What we know:
- By secondary structure, the protein is an alpha/beta fold.
- It is built from 13 helices and 7 strands.
- It has a 7-stranded mixed β-sheet with strand order 1-7-6-2-5-3-4, sandwiched between helices.
- Helix 10 (240-259) runs antiparallel to helix 11.
Amino acid sequence: MARPTERLARLPRLPFPWSAPTTPRGVEPLPRPPRAGADYDTDWARRPLARVVRAAVVEAVARPAVAVLARPDRRGLDRLDRLAADGGPVIFAANHHSHLDTPLLITSIPEPWRHRLFVGAAADYFFRTRATSALSALALGAVPIERTKVARRSADRAAALIEEGWSMLIFPEGGRSPDGWGQPFRGGAAYLALRCGVPVVPVHIDGTGRILRKGQKLPRPATTRVTFGAPLVPEEGTDSRRFAARIEQAVAQLADEVTTDWWSARRRAHAGTTPPLSGPDAPAWRRAWALGDPDRRRRRERRRWPPL
């Protein structure tokens, strides 16, 4: 018995203009635009109609869902006031624990950047098929980034958008944390900041790993905290490797601020003793034990008066 695709192939072909024209013999056919993968064209997702649809998804779908699942506590927005007054493009660089990180940040990043933002997304995951490519480009404003190798086309695509006035959200770790601790930052955000001459805003996300960690299929509601840091501007003469280390250090200082307090974190930053995002160099059980119980810590923070 013939398969449905085989039966469709036997149907008579409609003449032009009801079907695409054929290429004459002896003429080299035009290359077809890629429908998935690192070469997927996302320009259509920044046209007016697509931007209206994405804004509706962000405000009417993502924001209520994030509020229910994550109950976010957003801090440090006052550090962006000067950048907001300028209104130029910015690169937001954050740590990465969960697929929830992207909608959480898209709904947390304030204006004037929220609705003129694109996300650097892994081409081998978010652009694996035609369906996921279209959904990622439309709902997240994502562009494909190759994370398995250094690809100039990904950097050129992102740089062109930044130069057109679009801001970027990127996760320099290149993937979600496998155990709750951070991974070394790659140089993509630093390279683009140096190339385009734009500031980088370090962002620390806490709590999304308890909601939807890597390998978990169903989300579990919990509290989260998003902390925005002071913008970082590349110093004259610096290279992307040193600037990437500076971005990672800034996110680590925000993590220290979240787990302790602002003053203690500042003192450790000044002394150069900020705990790294990667956690202790120890066996897996010791690293898991060192993470502690953030929910219990926050309950202690909320208790302002001793029980009578």
